[in-house]
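Bumping with the actual sequence this time:
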Amino acid sequence: MAAARMGWGAAIGVLGCVLALTAGCGTEQPPAPRLTPEQERALATGPVFAYRTAAELAVVRGAETVRAPGSFGYSSAAVGFTEDGRYAFSVETSSKTLVTLSVQDGAVSRTECDCTDAVALRDSVVGWWREPGQIMSLDLAGTEPAAPERDVVLPDSPDPLSGGNWDGARLVAASDEFLLVARVESRGLWWEKSHLYAIGAEEILPLGRVPGIDGQLAAATGPDPRSFVLAGATARSASCGIGHVATIEVTTNVVQELPLLPGECSAAYSPRWDDDTITVATRKWADAPGAPSAVDRLRSAAQGWAPVGEYPVVDMLSHAQESVVEVVAGDPTDARDTPRGVLVVERDGARTELATQVVSLSAP
């Protein structure tokens, strides 16, 4: 898996791209299909990345774009890539269907997963949680249907229920050693608490709740397979919450809380932990009816949080300084809206608009 990561990282590095979302187990796998000469030329002339709108998942390969239609809505969930970089994927939250798109030939597949989240597990394999307690997996490079990979019985949380009832679980992140599952305690409407579990090969570690990260929990792997970055919010009311970001080392259950985010009301989502830098997409607004929200992607800094770009961005993936891919936002949106904007690619001083109403951006 490490070799696959290095190969795609090197490929993207050669292409020289900075990707930015700007506000407003088993058997040997078959070899990847060979690219046509036209595809090779497309890959050689620009970065490879994926984006999602409410109505489509798309992969950009240099000068070429391949698309998969879908009813994704305005979920803030990030686009995913398999570990080998061969497939992009996203989940239709309303139909609970996994939609995948081949980077090399644009082939589209749809799988009813009864899930709202899916994560890359290894090679071309993605996985998700299925109630009442199964880790499901699907090899996108194979022909077999999705199947249970592991039956799981979650132990009691070290933190007792605080007035709610269990309302299902989600597989939110995966490393080489652990799967991170969030089990949700809910009273309905906007009230919820997230209880974490780390599932390893030989043990299930009940981690309990992380202070401040009650609802809207999102996670990403850290620089080692035992560490994760978490983002979420503590709700003060139906219209106002406080966004929080923290890291957790699952074998020791040591939590490091990061500084509070700016804003009277705030939200944090789409975290990323690259090398020593943690970034997170944020929204902030005033606790008043109709108050607009200001969007930016922030990075952890010595004095708290700092913008990752010269102007507000939702995401930024930096591999070199030769090209920039960004989603530029328009006017501030309603506090409950998911930020979206115009996808712009800048290369050698030239800027090209590729799509509008873009919600999420990612690279292999």
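The tokens above came from a reply further down the thread. Confidence is low (pLDDT under 50) at residues 1-19, 21-32.
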